[in-house]
Amino acid sequence: MRRARRLVAEYGVKGFKFHPSIQGFFPNDRSVAYGLYEVIEETGTIALFHTGQTGIGAGVPGGAASA
Predict the structure, then answer these.
(1) 57, 28 in Cβ contact below 8 A?
(2) pLDDT in tens, 20-40
(3) The model's pTM
């Protein structure tokens, strides 16, 4: 939360982009995310969430990364 405030105050960050399935969190987990959401609200920044499939491995046989 401190880092988010600093990014907004010192670097002019306008929003935060999340991809929960890649970042390994549930967006509705109060113990993990809600503090950050409060900072986003306080600073008037934007929260953008990716949902659905990631596209990782798209076009690769089997849909996985090549070895």
Answers:
(1) no
(2) 988 889 999 999 899 999 999
(3) 0.73
**Which one-letter amino acid corresponds to residue 17?**
K
* In the chain, where the domains are located: 2-52
Cα–Cα distance for residue pair 17/35, rounded to 1 Å: 16
How far apart, in whole angstroms, are the C-alpha atoms of residue 20 and residue 8?
21
**DSSP letters of 40-65?**
HHHHT-EEEE--S---TTTTSGGGS-
The token pair at 15 is 């929003």
* Confidence tier at 64 by pLDDT (50, 70, 90): low
